[in-house]
Design goal:
alpha/beta
């Protein structure tokens, strides 16, 4: 198992350089609580628009360790730090034209706030974020997501998953300007997102704001 460690000065400089060289819509970030359909939608969307696809959770499990085991061994704060490092790796390897499904807590302030703030800044500067929800009705969406999560066989508690969704969805709504419904056929969700991206790309010819220096993960 790989032990979590913070970024070196060289790694931070490399990452900041990547941010400064990137354009705003090179990456499409699918965000939202667990169970909203980010992975399924991401695979279909990447095929539709001709982008590569990376699931950040799958990358973490492949390159580091099983997420639940890692958190059990090292704690949630170390997971947040290591997950941010995995994100940086993905960005550096892909560079552009990639749909990335983000972890459910990637933008949520619970541990290592300075790392989460840096994550948020990356998303703002590197591409466009699309929030997925199975329903615009929070209560209905919470029911759908909780059942999906329990059905995955990870021993999750439905009531706790419902509570987590309701706590996080408002934060995600405040972060993303774009929302797509993911409660039906994946093709319908992809149609919604493709239309959003077409509009945004036509309205935004390259960067509209100066790049900023991002905060680095905690030492």
């Amino acid at each position: 198992m790989v032990k979590a460690k913070t970024m070196s000065p060289i790694e931070r400089t490399r990452t900041q350089k990547t941010v400064k060289e990137s354009t705003f819509y090179d990456f499409v970030f699918l965000i939202g609580p667990g169970g909203v359909g980010k992975t399924t939608t991401g695979k279909h969307l990447s095929d539709r628009i001709g982008y590569d696809f990376v699931d950040l959770d799958e990358y973490f499990c492949s390159e580091v360790a099983n997420i639940r085991n890692f958190i059990s061994d090292f704690g949630y704060r170390e997971y947040v730090i290591m997950n941010s490092r995995c994100f940086n790796d993905v960005i550096n390897k892909c560079r552009s034209n990639t749909v990335i499904s983000l972890s459910s807590g990637f933008l949520i302030f619970e541990e290592a706030d300075e790392v989460v703030e840096a994550n948020r800044e990356y998303i703002r500067r590197l591409g466009v974020a699309v929030l997925l929800v199975p329903s615009l009705d929070h209560q209905k969406a919470a029911d759908i997501v909780a059942k999906r999560q329990v059905g995955r066989g990870f021993g999750l508690n439905e009531a706790e998953e419902r509570k987590k969704f309701l706590e996080r969805i408002k934060i995600y709504e405040g972060f993303s300007k774009h929302t797509a419904l993911s409660g039906g056929c994946p093709a319908d969700t992809v149609d919604q997102i493709a239309q959003m991206l077409d509009f945004n790309i036509r309205q935004n010819k390259g960067p509209q704001r100066l790049p900023v220096r991002l905060k680095s993960p905690a030492q």
